[in-house]
Design goal:
single chain; 111 residues; two-stranded antiparallel sheet; 21% strand; globular
């Protein structure tokens, strides 16, 4: 992800980055959150690849486990201020989605 982020990292507009690997969205994002914050993710705010629906159905996996175990099509999460979101989206192009927001909370991901 370094090449797509090139040019953004030096601007100081990225507040946090989370590479969504093993542990999915719910285990990786809290690692970058400061105390007193959480992230609220909106289901359906990005296209989920059909593979994940197939895995869920064939494996009889709960929805919460799908978000915890798999990335659901999200490879990197960028945390930024709302004022900088358009700059980041313009830089990254069509594979960039606003999937949620930072809210008050206890370093967790709410879906």
């Amino acid at each position: 992800y370094l090449k797509p982020l090139d040019g953004l990292l030096d601007q100081g507009i990225i507040k946090g980055l989370a590479h969504i690997t093993g542990g999915g969205l719910t285990d990786n994002i809290p690692r970058i959150l400061p105390e007193g914050t959480a992230v609220k993710i909106e289901k359906g705010s990005w296209p989920t690849p059909p593979l994940f629906e197939l895995l869920q159905r064939l494996g009889n996996v709960s929805e919460s486990e799908m978000y915890r175990t798999f990335n659901m099509g999200i490879g990197m999460v960028i945390v930024c201020s709302p004022a900088d979101a358009a700059t980041i989206k313009n830089h990254l192009g069509e594979q960039c989605y606003t999937i949620g927001q930072v809210v008050a909370g206890n370093r967790e991901v709410l879906i």
